[in-house]
Amino acid sequence: MELLRFATAGSVDDGKSTLIGRLLYDTKTIFQDQMEAVEAASEQMGTEYTNLALLTDGLRAEREQGITIDVAYRYFATPRRKFIIADTPGHTQYTRNMVTGASTADLAIVLLDARNGVVEQSKRHSFLASLLRIPHLVLAVNKMDLVDYSQDQFENVVGEYRDFASKLDIGDLTFIPVSALHGDNVVDRSENMEWFEGSSLLHHLETVHISSDRNLIDARFPVQYVLRPQSEEYHDFRGYAGTIEGGVLKPGDDVVVLPSGFSSRIAEIRTFDGPVEEAFAPMAVTVLLEDEIDISRGDMICRPNNQPDATQDVDAMVCWMTSETKLEPRMKLAIKHTTRMARAMVKDVQYRLDINTLHRDETSNVLELNEIGRVTLRTTQPLFADEYRRNRATGSFVLIDENTNNTVGAGMIVGTD
Predict the structure, then answer these.
(1) Which CATH number fits domain 220-302: 3.40.50.12710, 2.40.30.10, 3.40.50.300, 3.40.109.10?
(2) I want to staple 386 with a disulfide (CB 3.0 to 4.6 A). Which of 158, 164, 394, 403 is the partner?
(3) What pTM was computed for the model?
């Protein structure tokens, strides 16, 4: 079955965790002991109902404060599709966690409180979803039960959000009125909102078209590991293992290896289940070539006439993820791009972006915790990169503090020189 990864986002107390709990509960994907633990915790907290938000708010601090702090991943499936949910924090303080959880999502659900309409954090998370190039966005107008399921209130919120969303690059935008607490329009269509002609949230998640979102034009195969089994059965076997990050590969295709520039032809493509006639993103495969070429981890196999940019100068939007240091010019870091590791120096911080107003602060030349800005980097080795809007895998990277080995930044490439 096809896999859909989606992330939830929104302001504090808009009901993200409750919505996910309702999805899990109404699709009958909760174990009995989990439900009993949630019921007991709800009773201990003194609530008059079973608090489904506790299914995802696993940290003690989250339960005590009633907010999401860390990214919580949950898995469930229906007969139509498999799902991985990333429940991301809504608070400004945890912007880095939201970026982490949403970075691999095919779809984002931004929740709004029907009573409050579009607030500052709703705008922030919508902008981040746009920046991360998430192809599909659902605006779930929650707590419709608290506005008497009013169609006028829903349409007012939709109109307000459309005005803001027109400034963003959002490809597919859907609006759904829901009540996560009572289950209206979450799994089944609501009898309380017969005026709404759209589908329920789950039906939309099951049917949204995501196959065309993947880049099947630009063949990109970063080599992760070279397989040389030492046995008589696999005498002289040399395979290159990794995950296809773009395009389609077939036996017989002409390919070129970067950075060496040597050319060859694909002899065979193998998976865990055996040889295949074609492979595409995001399959994990082993590629065998007709010629013996010196290839190692970090090299990239691609088409001779369709190659990524090989560059040491990168312009990127960077989200800074640590409070221990600031990102500033002349700073030296390690950079991981696909399977390639190199060292990088910050040449310039062009501007810091105010993600609430979308204003560019060109007077600031540093980035602090949770801040996002445009940065120019110089690397010690060439990166084989595409722009992030063209390929999210080959257009992204992480920055690592060499002293602590901690990930301190995440970047999206907007240009190469």
Answers:
(1) 2.40.30.10
(2) 394
(3) 0.83
